[in-house]
Amino acid sequence: MRTLLATIRKPFPRPARLSPAARGERRADRRGLPACDPGPAAVIDACTAWLCAAQDHSASADGGVARDYSLQTGWSSSYPETTGYIIPTMIALAQRTGNAALHGRARRMLDWCVAIQFPEGGFQGGKIDSTPRVPVTFNTGQILLGLAAGVAAYGAAYADAMHRAASWLRDTQDADGCWRRHPTPFARAGDKAYETHVAWGLFEADRIAPGHGYGAAGLRQVAWALGKQQPNGWFAANCLDDPALPLSHTIGYALRGVIEAYRFAERADLLEAAVRTGASIAAATAADGYLPGRLGPDFRSGADYACLTGSAQNAHCLFLLYQLTGERHYLDAARRLNSYVRRTISIDGQPHARGGVKGSFPVDGDYGQWAYLNWAAKFCIDANLLELETSDA
User: Fold this and answer.
1) Which of the ends of the chain has fewer CB neighbours closer than 10 A, N or C?
2) pTM of the full structure
3) 138-152 pLDDT, tens per residue?
């Protein structure tokens, strides 16, 4: 199997010299998945603390959340895209715990996003110091999720920014529902089915402010994306860099957007489409919770590592499908996925690692290599919060 995978994986440049921390983490990961599962509550607390540290230690010191902590280079600058969708998680945690400091952190993230918005409503791709600095569809949709949550939680202070972002997305959409005018310069060119996750931002904006056509635009994109879905639920044109072997991360994006389209429109065909993908993800999840980081058109493994972000995202989606369908196999697979990710997390280790979620397990896999990613921690929190909600099932 490893020989086969070596022939299909794209060459990935290795750093000329690994830091002692990177070497140590690789050595630990190669010993295998730790046996101890800290459980949802402990991991939620640890990941929350790590996200707070990522905001405090961002190299750009601007109120946003550092993109990652690299075992090679340390804390990065802030990442607008993922700071945007960390905001709803931070608000949910603040409301759950009654912690006013978490509300304050969410407000600082929101204020920063508003400050960096382009006048026409879009947001840049990449880190805050990345170039070129141009408006990007996907990143705008992710920040829209945060702006809509900000309006719902804190009122009109964020309404203008939300409307400008949602209107920009609505008005830059092609007639067939795809967005092509403002692609990211940081991924392979081409249409992206996973922009159903942009559509979700429009659904949230429509819930806050109906009557502007935001939800209708989101449904047009989902209809276009479903034209890329195969009968087994796999999506073509659905990866950052390799459409033939999409990341579990972008599969999770696509699936979540379809689920949210169903929750918005309550159309049976949308739930059926989500079930097609969800059933295949559940079947691809091993008994120990391992989900390959890339999946081919038959949902067979295209990588020899787990993309922990994708595992957490897909766990969350399967919990939602369990709630929507009552089908137990979704619940069981979601719990296995969550447990796998939790077992990779240190809750009492070094400060930079405590509560951090690596891009890959092992750490030298080709997604988020050598780094703890802010969005991985966010999705891990979300999936474990939902697991707690379904713990009596």
Assistant:
1) N
2) 0.95
3) 999 999 999 999 999
